[in-house]
Write a structure and sequence with these properties.
- There is one protein chain.
- By secondary structure, this protein is α+β, with helices and mostly antiparallel strands.
- The protein is built from 3 helices and 5 strands.
- It has a 5-stranded mixed β-sheet, sandwiched between helices.
- Strand 4 and strand 5 form a beta hairpin.
Length: about 120
């Protein structure tokens, strides 16, 4: 099972903010670059056996939001089996109040998504 993976603008912003924080605020461009590469790899790999990751207990538009753990980051996504597509909704730190964040976010955006 190898699903197409699409990433929301919100998840792209999440990655950008983590990388920017490490690069600028912590002053470690090497670690920022490594994190960027690792997160992108994890996002891409989510399309391989997407059902193996846990249910977050939250729904979005009738879809179950799944939670994939990577280091201290959580990748949240939904699966459209009909389209064989995984939609990465958000990427959050494990210490964030991710349940509140996911429940409060009612709409996700795909700027670079061609229908």
């Amino acid at each position: 099972m190898n699903y197409k993976v699409l990433v929301t603008d919100e998840a792209i912003d999440d990655i950008f903010n983590f990388v920017k924080y490490i690069h600028i605020d912590l002053g470690d461009p090497g670690a920022a670059e490594k994190l960027y590469g690792n997160l992108n790899k994890e996002v891409s790999n989510t399309g391989v056996f997407p059902l193996k990751f846990s249910d977050s207990g939250i729904k979005y538009r009738g879809y179950t939001i799944h939670k994939k753990v990577f280091e201290s980051y959580l990748l949240f996504y939904i699966i459209d089996n009909e389209k064989q597509t995984v939609y990465i909704l958000r990427i959050l730190k494990d210490r964030m109040n991710w349940k509140r964040i996911l429940k409060n976010n009612k709409t996700y955006h795909f700027t670079n998504y061609n229908r």
